[in-house]
Each structure stands twice: as structure tokens, then as C-alpha cells.
Specification:
Blueprint lengths: L6 H4 L1 H18 L2 H7 L2 E2 L2 E2 H16 L12 H37 L5 H15 L6 H8 L4 H27 L8 H30 L1 H30 L1 H6 L1 H28 L4 H12 L3 H12 L4 H26 L7
Antiparallel strand pairs: 1-2
Length: 349
């Protein structure tokens, strides 16, 4: 250990880079493996990815102390929830639309002529789908890596999932100028069950069992550190799978991938900056401010990809844009985790 940071966490950026490269090579030279794994889906949710996400989420879930429910009315929790609701639903979808439209349509298509106009508009549609759904699963990982409050993280994910049910379709419909947006609710509900409900139940009962049979000291000093390594392995294996699924796409469309990625990356840093600075000025503790900022910066990409395919087709520009959102999210979010960890001492404890 060094400064409380494990070996894998200390060199996480290195492992991420190698896993991305390995995933792309795997997808191009042994495509049968990722092709088979990519087809194991239920309601357009990939089950191998879901299993790996469980490995990432479980360490966060097992840390949740439900006796903290009595603190639900504390001002920093109320402020944190207010922050995430306002940013995720009143700022993020509209800033995503404006940033994506400016770069993809105005700059890259109309000014530089790098994109056909209709294709640029399809990419904007995909960006809108990403911007209208805050993260459900991976935010637990980012919160875990920044030592965020597990109870608060669960609370904000749960409330935002409820808001998605009501707000996603109207917001997307308004920004796209469409009257009817078919939302695959089976995908939405299954994602919530897989990435929130199941790991939460498993975490609750395993925490209870370990504390009862091994004691709090063993739980905190031995059990949790072992789980942290499992979480990192889950993240790295997820990266290999995600990039192996899209290896040919990345190599065959390098320019379009870069053009789509630019506004998505700018949007991610912008939303994180708004939330993080707001939380700091509002005197939120770091373990609430960090996860409150991560949930808006990252996206519910399972839902976005599913809706893009159902609306525009699997070969559409919108589907490609949501896929690029998946590809850029992990490296960008890891950089934001690093920023959050490096600025932690600026917050009042």
C-alpha cells in the first residue's frame, strides 16, 4: 500500500490503457469470442457485462450501513439530492443538446464539411439520448474509487431512477422535436433490478452475516480491502469486453469516432465542473459532492443504446453516437475520479 491506495488503484490508468488496447485487438483478431458474448442479452441488457458490473458495484453496496437512514434529513444529504436533481434534469439534457449541435452540426458539418448534415443530426440525436439519462450502475464504481458515501450514492441513484420513468421520454421528445418516443421500459426496469436491487440485497445480507460472524474489525480491515481489488478487476474486464464488442467500429470509423467524442467529452467535463464547484460552494462534504457530480457526468448508456436502436436502427448514426458514449465514458470518468481525489483536501471534513 502507498498512502492507502492499493497497487491496482495506484496504476489504474496503465491497466485501463492496456485493457482498451487488448479489447480492440481481441475484437479484430478473434471476433468470435466478443460476438458470442455480445449476443447474450435480455431486453437488450448484456448479461456478461451485468455480471462484471455486479463485481464492481457489490463492494459499494456492502459498505452501506442502513442505520444511516436516521440521518436522511441531514442538510448535506438534502443539498446533495437537490444538486443532482437540478443538474441532471434541468441542465444536463439541454447542455448536451447545445454542445452536440454546436460541434457536430455547426462546426464539423456546416463549417468544415467533415460530416454530412443529416448524419450529423443523427449523431446529435444519439447525444440527446445519452444526456437525458443519468448513470445507474457505473456511478457506484466512481463513488467507490473516490470514497463516496455509499448510502448517499444509493439514495441518489434510486431517486434518479424514479425520475427517469417520468422525465426521460418527454425531455428526449422535446429536444428531438418528436411527439412519441418509444422507451423500452423492460430495459429500464431490468437495468434497475440488475444494477441496483440485486447487488443491494446481496450486499445487505452478506454485510449482516460477516459482521455477525467475523466482527466489525475483520469486516473493515480484511473483508473490504479484498473486495476493493475485486471491484478493480471487474472494471478492467468490463473494459476488455466493451472495447472488444466495438473493435472493428473504432478502427473502421476513426474520424467519425473522434468527431462524436469531442462534444461528449466536453459535456462530461462541463457537467462535472458545474456540479463539483456548486457542491463545493454549497459546503457539501466531499463524500457527497463527488458522487453527486459523477452521476450527471456519466450516463445510463444501456438505456440510451437500446432507445437509439429501437428508434433509428442498429446501423444508424444515433446508435453509433450512443456507442461512442460508452467508449469514452470510462477513461474520462477515471480522470474525473482522479481530479476529485486530488482536490479532496479542499473540502471541509
Amino acid at each position: 500500500m502507498a498512502n492507502g491506495i492499493g497497487f491496482f488503484e495506484k496504476y489504474l490508468s496503465v491497466w485501463v490503457f492496456f485493457c482498451i488496447v487488448f479489447g480492440i485487438l481481441l475484437g479484430n483478431f478473434i471476433p468470435e469470442i466478443p460476438r458470442y458474448l455480445s449476443e447474450i442479452t435480455v431486453s437488450q441488457v448484456n448479461l456478461p457485462i451485468a455480471v462484471l458490473v455486479w463485481f464492481m458495484i457489490y463492494p459499494m453496496m456492502v459498505k452501506i450501513d442502513f442505520s444511516a437512514v436516521k440521518n436522511l434529513g441531514k442538510s448535506h444529504l438534502v443539498k446533495g439530492l437537490s444538486l443532482t436533481w437540478i443538474v441532471n434534469w434541468l441542465i444536463k439534457p439541454f447542455s448536451m443538446f447545445l454542445i452536440a449541435y454546436f460541434f457536430l452540426v455547426t462546426v464539423f458539418s456546416q463549417y468544415f464539411g467533415l460530416l454530412p448534415l443529416e448524419l450529423a443530426k443523427e449523431y446529435v440525436a444519439g447525444a440527446i439520448l445519452l444526456g437525458a439519462a443519468p448513470c445507474t450502475a457505473m456511478v457506484f464504481v466512481w463513488s467507490h474509487l473516490s470514497k463516496g458515501d455509499p448510502f448517499y450514492t444509493l439514495l441518489q441513484v434510486s431517486t434518479n431512477d424514479l425520475i427517469i420513468l417520468l422525465a426521460f421520454a418527454p425531455i428526449v421528445g422535446f429536444l428531438m422535436g418528436l411527439s412519441n418516443i418509444p422507451v423500452p421500459y423492460d430495459t429500464l426496469i431490468l437495468s434497475v433490478v440488475l444494477f441496483v436491487v440485486i447487488p443491494l440485497i446481496f450486499g445487505y445480507y452478506s454485510r449482516k452475516y460477516v459482521l455477525k460472524n467475523k466482527g466489525k474489525k475483520w469486516f473493515e480491515n480484511i473483508f473490504i480491502p479484498k473486495l476493493n481489488n475485486i471491484s478493480i478487476f471487474g472494471l478492467l474486464l468490463t473494459l476488455i469486453l466493451l472495447f472488444s464488442f466495438q473493435g472493428d467500429l473504432i478502427l473502421n470509423n476513426p474520424l467519425y469516432i473522434v468527431l462524436i467524442a469531442i462534444p461528449l467529452i466536453i459535456q462530461t467535463y462541463f457537467i462535472f465542473g458545474v456540479s463539483y464547484i456548486w457542491g463545493f460552494k454549497w459546503k457539501l462534504p466531499h463524500n457527497v459532492c463527488a458522487p453527486a457530480s459523477f452521476i450527471g457526468a456519466s450516463n445510463f448508456f444501456e438505456l440510451a443504446v437500446a432507445v437509439a436502436i429501437s428508434l433509428f436502427g442498429i446501423e444508424s448514426g444515433a446508435a453509433l453516437a450512443t456507442t461512442v458514449g460508452v467508449l469514452v465514458e470510462v477513461p474520462v470518468m477515471l480522470s474525473l475520479v482522479k481530479i476529485a481525489n486530488q482536490t479532496k483536501n479542499r473540502f471541509k471534513l
